[in-house]
Design a protein that fits this description.
This is Sporulation protein YpjB. With about 290 residues, the protein is mainly alpha-helical. It contains twelve helices and no strands.
């Protein structure tokens, strides 16, 4: 081994040069394998597979609406097989793929008890339907239609809390929880984990306040919930949630009004400064007798 050292020393300068060049270009040579790995993670077949998967889940949902348990059982097996054979990497993160798998498992369990709890069966099918749709639709996904419903739940929470109506407040919160549970897989598929965690932390805290009957606390935190919901649904902070288009005033109107007020204030201040300087000059140079 020691005899080979002189031969290896001849390659040391070349290796050092390659390392310096690689670091200088911001692309280390050991990053090549990582880049290849990232490229493999974004499969070009993923959108096609997601579209086919969504189509089969839509058919599954129709069978549930019809109450055809036997057809649903067969379709669930088909959907499950498609999920196992498909790759949705690049369309969602690990959390999204995991929650999609959970939704399929929940659908299997709900179908097994469909006759005992048909309402839960329908809700589970709807959850899976929204989740599959969110894989193929980013800007016009079906779950985005629940924005108005969720905001109405929050409005009712605040309204009942303001009236000290604890029962109504609790009912509104239960409705909010139910709607959130329905769109939760879609949120996890399309939104960042920290955004989802913030909403769920808010829901947990709000649930504690509602359980304790703290109406003042509920009124205090509802605006925070509205901001979080606006963020999840891609709405602006200052955008009215439920205002009709005809009632939304043009932003340039307010800019002109505010600008006019500022201009008037500046003109008035300048005029007062001018009058002050004029009076001062008269006192320094009194008129001749």
């Amino acid at each position: 081994m020691l005899r080979n050292m002189p031969k290896l020393s001849r390659y040391v300068p070349a290796v050092l040069i390659l390392l310096i060049l690689a670091i200088g270009t911001g692309n280390p040579i050991w990053a090549g394998s990582a880049a290849v790995k990232d490229a493999d993670e974004s499969s070009p077949a993923a959108p096609i597979q997601a579209k086919a998967f969504n189509k089969e889940v839509e058919l599954l949902y129709r069978y549930v609406e019809e109450g055809n348990i036997q057809a649903v059982l067969e379709q669930v097996r088909k959907v499950s097989g498609m999920f196992e054979a498909s790759s949705f990497q690049g369309l969602t993160g690990v959390e999204g793929i995991h929650v999609l798998a959970e939704s399929i498992i929940e659908m299997k369990e709900a179908t097994a008890h469909a006759s005992q709890d048909p309402q839960h069966w329908m809700l589970t099918a709807g959850k899976l339907r929204l989740a599959a749709d969110s894989l193929t639709h980013t800007k016009d996904a079906l779950w985005l239609q629940y924005f108005k419903v969720v905001r109405e739940d929050l409005d009712r929470m605040r309204e009942h809390a303001g009236k000290q109506d604890k029962q109504g407040m609790s009912s509104a919160f239960e409705s909010l929880q139910g709607h959130y549970e329905l769109i939760r897989p879609s949120l996890i598929i399309q939104r960042k984990p920290d955004e989802v965690n913030m909403v769920e932390s808010w829901l947990s805290y709000a649930g504690g306040l509602v359980s304790s009957g703290d109406t003042e606390g509920v009124q205090r935190i509802v605006p925070q919930g509205e901001e979080l919901v606006n963020t999840l649904f891609g709405k602006k902070r200052d955008e009215p949630a439920l205002a009709p288009l005809g009632q939304v005033k043009e932003p340039w109107t307010w800019q002109v009004i505010i600008g006019a007020i500022i201009l008037a204030a500046l003109i008035f201040a300048g005029y007062r400064k001018y009058r002050g300087q004029l009076n001062s000059s008269k006192s320094l140079f009194p008129p001749k007798a």
